[in-house]
Predict the structure.
Amino acid sequence: MSSPSGTAPAVEARGVRFSYPARRRSAPVRPALAGVDFQVEPGEVFGFLGPNGGGKSTLFRILATLARPESGSLRVFGADLATQAREVRRRLGVVFQNPSLDLQLTVRENLVHQGHLYGLGGRDLAGRIAAGLERFGLSDRADQRAKELSGGLRRRVEIAKALLHEPRLLLLDEPSTGLDPGARRDLWETLDSLRSGGVTVLLTTHFMEEGDRCDRLVLLSRGTIVAEGTPTELKREIGGDVITLTGVDPEALAREIAALHPGLDPQVRDGAVRLERERGHELAARLAEALPGRIESVTVARPSLEDVFLRRTGHRLYDDQEESAA
Amino acid sequence: MTRAAFTLWRRELTRFFRQPSRIAGAVGTPLLVWVLLGSGFAGSFRLPGAPGMAGPGYLQYFFPGTIVLVLLFAAIFSNISVIEDRHEGFLQGVLVAPVPRSAVVAGKVLGGATLAWLQGVVFLALAPATGLRLSVLSALEAAGILAVLAFSLTALGFAFAWKVDSTQGFHAVMNVVLMPMWLLSGSFFPLDGAPLWLAELMRINPLTYGVAALRQTLAGGRVPALSLAVSLLLGLAAFAAGLLATRGGRVD
């Protein structure tokens, strides 16, 4: 097959735009994706982190070849999504947020159908299924119906199913949503082992802990990429620690801190005063001394991706009240 | 392509036989309709031109229409799964697979049609109970006509189901399009006695021709070529509509 060069980026997106049709004619069309650019290198675990409605799901649907962007271009290992969809599909394994297993069928039957859809059959397919079941610890569940499995096990079958044709790029939509902590750990062990096997992994998430586990990620808000980099790079921009203070009157507290330390920019969020500063513990001690009795609690923490998100967008990752675009 | 269509076809069959309630619903309802309506009307209903009491009773008249109703119900049931599957289920995975759209439509429609046909054939076996004496040949011919009708009705249901997007919407289609199509197909009352406006509607209803073909065959007559051709054409047109319906959205 004259597949484009093996050194091409796993995904290359340029100016990808997408809008959903307005529900009412008078309603303004707000783009779900307002022209995004990003590049995913082969073999990395790449994350789209953002609140619901930020554009992640739309991007996922476009990458999964289920929706066509209004404009812009997308290439998967060099194959153009607009003109070589079939090629792209062959290289793609997709794990949906809503399970795509047929719950009436057994685990094995689900895998057999999947194999047939990807043109596999016979001994080759039987071998792949046995290996997949083994790898995900599902061998003794093979003849159980999917509906009898727990959420964590179903997710494992989903992943085994998506990997059956050995895709070069695995796409996962909110893979840990609805999983208990044990199943989440399982999932990440799988993703890590895929990475070492050379599979590129691209996932959407709204958990910052999950963003931390990616090699690189983009932060998505309201259809635009607000930051891009490794978790460490992103957090470095915070410049030091994050100090959070609570008190009876946070607004007044913030004003007093600003008066004491003109270089600081205290911000009030969710009833707490937030500061960014290197050597945060020293400042925290000084503030506690300078404002006796005014402060109820002080925390000093290393910056998180949530802090980066907050700084870039002015709103929090979790309680972003945008309507879901997907 | 054929492997993909085959696997989707087989999935429909596997699923059906794992859900006994579906079997009960698909055959039970028409059976009830046939026994209750048929018996209720039997005393007061005379076919126009029927030679007195010696003519076929209403139960017998109603029989071909009931088989078509079996097919229609089966087609509706199998297409409801299209709607359920599409947004959060199995079909998502099919749509991202390197499979042509036509294979998806073919697998789904042929799967549903096979199930409808099987149910129709089971019902056909009740023919002796209505006093119809079927030769082996006319039974086979009738089974062939059922195959054509099963395909047409399933394909038609599919084209709607893909576009409709919700089971509620599909119920509306069923009530406004599919059931009237059946009511006005000569299943329930003959075209000859109907008022002119209704008769015209029945004449342009493609299903009328399918029911007529089945009725004639069950009566031991030759398979009417024109009626069969109309039924086949309906099936092909509906299949094409199904292919068109699946266009768009997905990148192809």
Summary: The CA atoms of residues 114 and 150 of chain B lie 7 Å apart. Chain B touches chain A through 28 residues (CB under 8 Å).
